[in-house]
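Narrative summary of target 7.
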Amino acid sequence: MLEVQIKMSNINLKENFSFSGIKSDPLVKKMINLLMRDGKRSKAEQVLNKVFQVLDEKYPGRSLHIFYFSVFEAKRDIGIRLKPKPKKRRKINSFNTYVPYTISSMKGLNLGMRSLLKASRERSGSRPFWENLSEEILLASFGKGEVVAKRYSLNKLADSNKRRVHLGYRRLFPVISESKT
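Modeled conformation, tokenized:
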């Protein structure tokens, strides 16, 4: 009897999943804006609603938590900039160098969500996009998947080039040397 009630309650949860209350969340709003193409906000909301429904079927009542975990796992905190090699110099070190720099927290969240979307777009084209996105979100929330692997490889590259951080700083004002007059 209890098992039947649990099954019935799971069915009710699937049918009664409400996306309207979640839309006011700032990270969900940002994801809708990133999903939106050509001003089609309602289609982006439908796609994200289907993603949350798929996550809610697998893990009832935890879809928003899984979304948050995946975004925070995909968040970037360090970026890599390529500094080109110097021209017309005949030095031994005439190669491109990678210069690490820090990223603000808001930009890091934005880059993380963009990388989730990019990885889900690059998945197989035979399945619908919302299934690919839900799969990528689920993998990222567990600390696995393409997005998290790319983040770890970028952090490893930044760690190996941390001695070149001083090359990334640019002076805002030129240093004026005092002349002896």
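The longest helix spans residues 41-58.
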